[in-house]
Amino acid sequence: MSKPLLIPRNRLSPEVIAEAEKHLSKRDKKLAKLIRDVGPCTIGESNSSKFEMLISTVISQQLSGAASTTIFNRLLECAGGRTNLAKRLKSLSFEEIRACGVSSTKANSILQIAELVTAKHLDLDALNDHDDEAVYRTLTSITGVGPWTVQMFLMFALQRTDIFSPGDAGLRRGLMRLYGMQDKPTETDMLTITEKWRPYRTVASWYLWRLVD
Fold first, then answer.
1. Domain ends where: 113, 130, 156?
2. According to the 3-state scheme, what is the secondary structure of the chain?
3. pLDDT for 37-63, tens place per residue?
């Protein structure tokens, strides 16, 4: 009988998420109440490919969830569907991508990512085996891909457990509401405040987003 596949402890799974909820509840009373009110975290549940998730994250930069979803769906329609999406996007012109509502910088990023993937210079699935810093180095070498995009990819595509994005406006609003802050915390303040949530800051982030949804 084959042995069950073990998920690394730095990857989200139902068991790791349950462990995270217990840990966070012990470390932070306010977060404990939020966890009770919201219920179980479902951040690990997605059927999208890593390529789709990276492209949709690029589109999401500085946009609302509704706006980015609309634009991504337009892009899918323009490309003719999800099948062989990288190849389909590579075949689109810059102008066709822009016509979907994508900015010039993001259109360049999308085309570059599609080219790298189809040419097999970028293997997104192989990033599962890279540590967080290696993922940062790989993805930030792409035009228009900065820390926020990588952090979202680490959270949602690679399902890493201990990622926090201090530049995310939703997380800032969530922290302010959770702790009743009047003034906006700086990114340094946010990292200091959330230090006690290690090694499960990804799960804590998911709850902060629920607080401001």
1. 156
2. CCCCCCCCCCECCHHHHHHHHHHHHHHCHHHHHHHHHHCCCCCCCCCCCHHHHHHHHHHHCCCCHHHHHHHHHHHHHHHCCCCCHHHHHHHCCHHHHHCCCCCHHHHHHHHHHHHHHHCCCCCCHHHHHCCHHHHHHHHCCCCCCCHHHHHHHHHHCCCECCCCCCCCHHHHHHHHHHHCCCCCCCHHHHHHHHHHHCCCHHHHHHHHHHHHC
3. 999 999 977 788 999 999 999 999 999
- Which residues touch 92 (CB under 8 Å, ≥6 apart)? 78, 79, 111
**Rounded to 10 degrees, what is the CA torsion of 149, 190, 12, 130?**
50
Domains: count for the chain: 2
- pLDDT per residue over 141-166, tens digit each? 999 999 999 999 999 999 999 999 99
Only one residue has tokens 């789709």, namely: 52
Q: Is the peptide bond before 199 cis (omega within 30 degrees of 0)?
A: yes
Domain region containing 134: 50-156
pTM of the model: 0.92
Chain CA centroid to CA 113, Å: 16
Residues in the chain: 213
